[in-house]
Amino acid sequence: MAHGATLPNPAAAARARAMNKHKTRVVLVAASLALLCIALAVYGFDYYTLPIDQRPFSDKYDLLRPSGLIGINLGIFGTVLFCVLFLYALRKAMPFLGRIGTARQWMDFHVIIGVSAPVLIAFHASFKFNNVAGAAFWIMLAVALSGVIGRYLYSQIPRSLNAAELSYQELEAREDELADALAKQSLFDPMYLQKIFAMPSAEHVRNSPVLLILAEMFLLDLARPLKLARLRRKEMGHALVVLSLGGLLRMGTPELEAIIRQIRAKAALSKRILFLDRAQRIFHLWHIIHRPFSYAFVVLALVHIVNAIRMGYF
């Protein structure tokens, strides 16, 4: 065997296969729920757009009204999905759940289901939000929106493969490695890179309000692809600039794209290090706010279900 040959790492290969399977499952679940919502919107468009007082005269009224065949089942399905969300919290207390997948994988499904459940409940309610059911829906929507924010915050706290949070020392060591690698490249002037990927000061991050910090984190992530496209445009010919949609698509030379990957990783890591302490504090605060909304929805949903049973809708 040649000295330069490298043996594959079985553990790394197994992790890659497991991650690919997880991504496939996530895509299938998300696509299935999205297709269900699209199908409901297409089928019920002429019903849901009718004024409330004209809906009883629609041919689809018996199916799509909240107590109709489709409507009632959508309510049940949406409520079940919302209850499934609590498995994410229960996995810490129930060992057999904790052995299924990683925290990051559970979080992916948690967010998908959390976003889908309010949409299905909206179809169940025929987009009429009043009384106890309406209050339950708005609380569930608040839970879903806060869940999206929580997932974003979770992604801002770097973790190892076993989901343990990485220390500042580990992050800084990785940042130094990327900085050394970028110092050896010859395509871009380091001062130019430092200028276009400039970050707020540490003092500004420490003293800014929570909402401003969230907005700045999001805007930095949103601007990063545009800044990387700007780098591609500097090294591409006019034809490739057009074909790559102004540098947004990866159509540069292998050397350019390798350097772009390093720059992307360095910029993202530098941002995470800068905001890490605030992101951790906000994430813990988010937990305090997110859970009471979830429990409030369960209480209101139970009241709504009991009333529906008493009124003979089941």
How much beta, percentage-wise? under 5%
Largest sheet: none
Number of helices: 13
The helicity comes to over 70%
Order of helical and strand elements: HHHHHHHHHHHHH
Structure description:
The protein is mostly helical and 314 residues long. It contains 13 helices and no strands. The chain has two domains: 26-161 and 289-310, no CATH class; 168-278, no CATH class. 74% of the residues lie in helices and 0% in strands. The radius of gyration is 25 Å and the shape is elongated. Mean pLDDT is 82; it is low at 1-7.
What's the SSE blueprint?
Elements (H helix, E strand, L loop, with lengths): L9 H39 L12 H4 L4 H16 L2 H4 L4 H4 L4 H22 L6 H25 L12 H16 L6 H7 L5 H6 L2 H26 L2 H6 L10 H57 L4
Helix pairs in contact: 1-6, 3-6, 6-7, 7-13, 8-13, 11-13
Brief digest:
The protein has 314 residues and is mostly helical. Helix 11 packs antiparallel against helix 13.
For this entry, give a set of tags.
314 residues; mainly alpha; 0% strand; disordered N terminus
